[in-house]
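Write out the 3D structure for:
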Amino acid sequence: MAIFGLFSKEKKETLDKGLEKTKTGLLAKISRAIVGKSKVDDDVLDNLEEILITSDVGVETTVKIIERIEKRAVRDKYINTAELNKILREEIASLLEENGSANGKTPFDFSKKPYVIMVVGVNGVGKTTTIGKLAAQLKTEGKKVYLGAADTFRAAAVDQLTVWAERAGVEIVKQQMGSDTASVAYDTVKSAVANSADVVIIDTAGRLHNKINLMNELTKIRNVLTKVIPDAPHDVLLVLDGSTGQNAFQQAKEFTKATVVTSLAVTKLDGTAKGGVVLGISDQFKIPVKFIGVGEGINDLQVFDKNRFVESLFGDLNQNTVNIEKN
């Protein structure tokens, strides 16, 4: 299953399964809010607002969505509840598009060679695993990939990345535990350039003892990368754990203060009812979502497709409402 290929039936099934808990919760709540109603009125909108907030979409983004629906109601004079699902999909997809989120196609500019990705995120969010899965999929696509084990503050991080490199069949550059992180990043990019690599992925420390140290380390890494490739890194990918809900917002806030973040990967969306966090974080921080993790398998890291995501998230609201009315 190619990471940059067409959105296959297999990918859709994986996405639907991964978002099942979020979808089930959302559909049930929204369906109960509109059952017996023929028109989207103030009560329906108030209930919808509460539902989206409690689904970790976030207050600001929820208010924005509600305001857009209200404008549609004024413009169209009347919105019946049967149309609500379609309007929700359109407005949320529109928000994601405004933030530049991926459309299921190649999220990297491979004309830049090597394309350098610096990956940031706190420990435990699936950062190293995301790097490993991405490297494996890029290797399958025929790309020559180099990994840089620049999280030298945590021995397990280097060991874990080494395992992934061996599994994926890609090169890894590493040094001793406690080595200078910027030095590892520099050596990785130098080696990648010398060996005509297509992609470089740099793992960075998930947490240092204070925010100033974190900021300084990330700045050092960025600075040494530019010594080899002036416009590197080409992408700073922040990995967030979707299952943590509102805590993911706080992580995004801290990392956007510490460095320039250009894209998001939201992991662990399978098995959680907090999938709405993808919408809120992308909207509030104006950072595009490039990848989502919807399972443990290598191919369960998917290029984000805003339309498919919204479709999987909201499903068939009208049919769900009919079932509630019958019961």
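The chain is about 55% helix and 10% strand.
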